Amino acid sequence: MLSLFDDAPDPSAPSDPGPSPLSDGQRLQIRDAFGLLGLTTAREQFALVEELTGIRLSRVTDLTEDAARSLIYTLKGRVQNAGRANTGDSWADRDEDTWIDRL
Question: Which region holds residue 22: left if phi is over 0, alpha if psi is between -120 and 50, else beta?
């Protein structure tokens, strides 16, 4: 019987395969979002991935499933806000009417 602190690995223990790569479905969602944003070159796309996730990619397969999930969520927000003017004034840029507007 092995102790928790023994150096010998337990052969019956499952090995950690590491992070999962992004799925084909995630890759398609990301590609579609880039298309809607007008980002057509790999340089533009990799720069945005780095800006949004903090991960510098050298190839698409470096993106993990978890990072892709976060990227997709953020890209959806970018796509929704793509046509809006951003004045930098949070009051003027608000999405919905406030109670004051409804008076």
Answer: beta
